[in-house]
Amino acid sequence: DETGVHLGHNRLSIQDTSSHAHQPFLSSCENYIIIFNGEVYNFKSIKKELESLGHNFISNSDTEVVLYAYKQWGIESVHKFIGMFAFVIYDQVKQKLFLLRDRAGVKPLYYYMNNNVFMFSSEIKSFHKHPSFSKKLNKEVLPFYFQFAYIPAPYSIYENCFKLKPAHYIEYDLKSKKHSIHKYWDIHDFYLMDKFNKNETEITKEIETLLLDSCQLRMVSDVPVGVFLSGGYDSSTVTSLLQKNQEDKLNTFTIGFEEKEFNEANDAKQIAKLLGTNHTEQYCTKNEMLELINQLSFSYDEPFADDSALPTILVSKLAKEKVTVALSADGGDEVFFGYSKYFALKKIMELKSSKIKYNLLRLIVNLFNEKSIIMMNSLLPKSKKQANIVTKFNKFKSMINAKSKEEMFIRASSKVEANFLNKVLKNGKFNKFEKTAFRDFNKLDRLDYLDQMMAMDYKTFMVDDVLCKVDRASMSVSLEGREPLLDHRLAEYMARVPSELKYKHKKGKYLLREVLKKYIPTETTDKPKAGFTVPLKSWLLGELKETALMALESKILKQDDIFQEK
């Protein structure tokens, strides 16, 4: 129109597959337009409320419900939504655009602002087609990428191009061309509340109730739904809760690897057999994985170095053969206390109370090398052997030599040491930490260190690595991924659970284990986890060596002037 607003949408139909739900969606009064990505799972109850207030609907989609919720209650309507979403509403009465992203950041939303041009999309590559988009590399964010293997919000790889942070919305005034960014929810607020004064039995029962409701809500669909099953606590819990309330067999999907160290397909098969699901597994070859590498740059829009993106794409392809929606169990580590780095950091903090013990451990750890660690691990019984032992050891070594709690957490979250980056990058210094979620670490100082770490990961690693990986992988094959462990009601509840119940008897995910043991025997899932990863190191020394060296020698890399000459 005359305001210069252009809206477009490429729809994956899940709720109401008819043409009535096509987008952009225009309200009956023609004052409001929406483009919407994701799902609001409780849209039916909101729809009933809106109907009682006099609103009429022409579709059975959640998109229309979101639009009329905005018309009725304004942007505050977001507090009614349970789900994952990124949407833009054009309010022609106010002559404003509202861009909003879900609380956890499951769905992406990018925007570009330069020379009075304002663009937004769920993918950066959409901007490439616009003549006003400048693909100028943002070198200031490269230290972030090389240290963490992802670029944290609000930044992207390009200048003037940003990620909208989770639980935020942009209000853009079309007349003044000015915008403001607002936060509507924060998990840290719940961590800072008083902890529950309830017994373990009460808490476990309430968690199970929340989990059941979260899982059931995410089964609402007009197309077939399945579940990613790895055999670990998280996906086993989701599958168990769903199969309990399903008469039909659930479709479950697993990817297996030729390399035993990385293969968890047998564990998943055992769980599927116990629960009676309709299970599909596929063993992928090294060649299949390597062929996908060239696809990554297209699917992920910007540099992204989580190697588990490869098997995630493959399991998404496998699921897409039978279903259009797949539930995964991402977020379990951040919500229920599952990462191995948490256990290591907790141990280090305990040892710090005794300077003698702490300094002795530092001395011993610094004496060991990778070869000795591999040998020691090989001597352990099978049930105690650790996957990725060298990576874990080097990480622990780095953490124990940190000088502060914050530095310890940053090192635990890093793929590459900052000191090393200062030597190899021309601009290796971090100048923009204050605009990322990492700045919140010290605001949470009064929390128990376990809660502090989980609260930080929820807004950093989980958003820009884990959720980015799953969303891009699944959407690359037109499969919708859903995250029942990231229901905001569950996250809010767990933030107020005392940390001693999250980590008990020297085990993480204690409360999740307590829920799961009602459905399947404890020993079935009580095994060391390898994580959803690939043997990247051996590939870089073998099949990928030539490709990697060619990339490092490329003219483009030299032209970008990123690395030190030496």
What is the fold's blueprint, element by element?
Elements: E1 25-26, E2 32-40, H1 43-52, H2 62-73, E3 83-91, E4 96-101, E5 110-114, E6 117-121, H3 142-148, E7 161-163, E8 168-173, E9 178-183, H4 187-191, H5 200-217, E10 225-228, H6 233-244, E11 251-257, H7 265-275, E12 278-284, H8 286-300, H9 309-320, E13 325-327, H10 332-336, H11 340-352, H12 355-367, H13 370-379, H14 389-400, H15 405-412, H16 418-424, H17 449-459, H18 461-475, E14 480-482, H19 488-495, H20 499-502, H21 510-516, H22 522-525, H23 536-541, H24 545-552, H25 555-560
Parallel strand pairs: 10-11, 10-13, 11-12, 13-14
Antiparallel strand pairs: 1-2, 2-3, 3-4, 4-8, 5-6, 5-7, 8-9
Report the oligomer: single chain
N- and C-termini, Cα separation: 55 Å
Text of the CATH class of the largest domain: Alpha Beta
How many DSSP helices?
25
The number of distinct structural domains comes to 3
Family: Belongs to the asparagine synthetase family.
EC number: 6.3.5.4
Domain Glutamine amidotransferase type-2: 1-175
Binding site for L-glutamine: 62
